[in-house]
Records
---
Amino acid sequence: MIFGQYFLEATYLIASCLFVMGLKSLSHPDTARRGMIMAAAGMAAALVGTLFHPEIHNYIWIVVGLIVGSSIGIPMAMVPMTAMPQRTALSHAFGALAASMVGLAEYVIHGAGLGPVKMGALGLEVMLGSLTVTGSLIAAGKLQEVIRGTPIMFKGQHYVNLALFLGMITCFVLWMINPASGIYFYTLVGLAFLFGVMLVIPIGSADMPVVMSLLNSYAGLSSAATGFVLGNNVLIIAGTLDGFSGFILSILMCRAMNRSITNVLFGGFGAVVATDTAAGGTMREVTLDDVAVQLAYANQVVFVPGYGMATAQAQHACRELGDLLEERGVSVKYGIHPVAGRMPGHMNVLLAEANVPYSSLYEMEQINPELSTTDVAVVIGANDVVNPDARDNPKSPIAGMPIIEVDRAKSVVVLKRGKGKGFSGLENPLFFKSVTGMLYGDAKSSLSNLVQAVQKV
Amino acid sequence: MALIAAFYTFAEQTSGGLTLSPAVLVASLYVFALAAFLGYQVISRVPPLLHTPLMSATNAISGISLIGSLVIAGSRYEHHQTLASVLGCLAVTSAMINVTGGFLITDRMLKMFRKKETVKAEEKK
């Protein structure tokens, strides 16, 4: 090895260490920011080191790519926090696209010369990468509501998917046997693109947290496979970290819904609605002033946000109400379900954006024991995550899903747009309980009106 | 084992230096396994509070495929020069989107997670 190569490898080693340290710092919000700056420095080191790579002769394409990439990447970092899920889905697509393009280029350049081990890794890389590209684009389209958010299903869908999957495997095997026949390889890529689409269209928007995590995992593993193809350790390390992070998140999300990954991917949840529930009776509507009095004289109030808060952009109004109540000596907490929203941690980011200190944000396990001593629980645009049927009715489609048990509070106020069912189409018995009062209307204006009403109390 | 050995001999005979040598493959598998173990340990300690920043952070980090893309976009080849450069350039672009966008938005988000005292102090200003 010549000196230049040692320098290059040194920057990669430094980058790997800084990445791990950066992720470790995410275990606490106080250290997180500094850690991520370290990780970014690691990335910069690896980038600069690579620019001096002995094989690089022509900088035109590199400069074009770096400039175009930055000029798309920087605006993409400026999106409002409510658009985080679709932005993240898009970035999964770009990550996977980069890995697939590297794989494609490697095959175009070296062809069969790569040898079977590298070809195996390359095939895996391009297959995972390509299906993640289209899958993530569909997910982003659903989240942005360009594509219908409800599951898109048709007869024989499972067979079509199975056929596509078997087709991919066949192409992969045939290509491994005849490495020089590009036709198998390119068919594999085409099938993978199609498979990605088919994988995500039957999944409803409410299951997006799982899908997002899973696509995150695929994109990461695809990068790791790139590392095997290029024989580059920092790629393997970074890709594996990304892949495992996505994998762990998907498990956590599935656990929070008491469903298996297969069920999420192939269940088409939300398409068929079983209305087999004991829910019935009348919903009690409450007035603003009633709620304001209840809140103002409470000892403890817990807000439980859901995706409805994000769509109504109600996080700032919510924080205003929370602050006002705290000034009156009320203890204010926010209870956050792991799958509330459209991606892991979505609600936390929205509330943090609205200046809610993180010490007021409570996880489901932390808030549940406190609910029996809570005077008022305010549900803002959440539905399934507070549905007592999950706990009480074994026949319910969401039976066994852990919920935030707001019905144990002395009083519950549900902010809801209208009398209709929630996104999943399930009836929610919470709304019919005697402790529950319904406050209809747009969550944002309801909360702002509550602020004014509380000020008058 | 004999089969695997034969497989490698075949691989090396057919294509010279390009292929992955068994020693390198084994080392790579070690790196992969250790990184997976480390990743599991580190990431399971991240609280749900920070799951969104975690996702964008790992996204940014996996933008490291940028370094592979750079070499492809900038190298000289005997065949398919234009195609390889265009693919490389596309890869550099996509990876760069994730690197800049990912780190910037992670930082923007992490800036928002503040202690109660910090929030109060800022409001007084």
---
Amino acid sequence: MKDNKIKKAFVATFPQTIPILTAFFFIGISYGILMKVSGFSFWYPFLISIFVYGGSLQFVAIDMLLMPFNPIGAILMTIMLHVRQMFYSIAMLENYRGAGARLPLMVYYLADETFSVNFSAKIPADVDKHWFYFFVTLLNLFYWAFSSLLGGLLGSLISFNTKGLDFVMTALFVAIFVDLMREEKNRMPGIIGVIVAAVCLWLFGPVKFMVPTLLLIVVLLIGLRKKIEVA
Amino acid sequence: MTTTQKIITIALMALTSAVLRFLPFVLFSSEEKTPEIISYLGKILPASIFGFLVIYSVKHVELFKGYSGLPEAIAIAATALIHYYKKNTFLSIAVGTVLYMVLVQFVFI
């Protein structure tokens, strides 16, 4: 029975996505509220979550959408933030093959959290793996999109002083940065990021420093590759 | 930015993300064929990028005016310390943000 197979996969999937549900619920709501108090209608965070589907990029985009139009900057920022996600696709190549009509959706939404669940998932032998991957993908998208929507709607009800609320984004980046620095044996890439950004900000100012910073980071990382890989 | 420019910006981000996520399925038949420089950057970039993003998110702070970024520096240090010791992302974000809001609304007015 096909229906039974699908149901079985869904039942196996849901518990494994609960950690993502809690994470997406809080970060998604914060994102939606921040969008709303930054002057965007509630459907902006909802649609951006559905189309872009990348937490850090979406937080950065709040600010970019309020600044002068910069298409090159938008593309470059996306590449820098999401190039790591190419490796999620590479890692899932074998397992995702054969998913047929489900594949486009599974690949389009293969971001950090979905990858972390699917890559390390222990799928019971009697569960169809493609349905399992598919439901993880779909549930995570659902959590993220609706938390953003909820945040966008809640944002208009807020009556307290929201000054400083945008620090949510800084705090999120600081937490991820600390995690990355903890994991890496070599601290140089992290330090390069901070120093290059600070110097470029000082030289080019807040509106124009993004593109030179990103380019300089790539140049330095490639130039210092031998030192970084040895350490 | 006009509404059209906003939509173009969002579309470019969506499209670029999609290209990155789909590319391996189009290009590579197996893990071994990934260009070396791409796998190096994929591994090493995140730390640099998040270092940059921390600075990016406080880029409007003026070091030679007002409080010279003191509330930001305090809140960033507090967030980093809490996260270093407690390893709990929600806790770090909540404490950091509330602290910063208190600082800019009541202390550094």
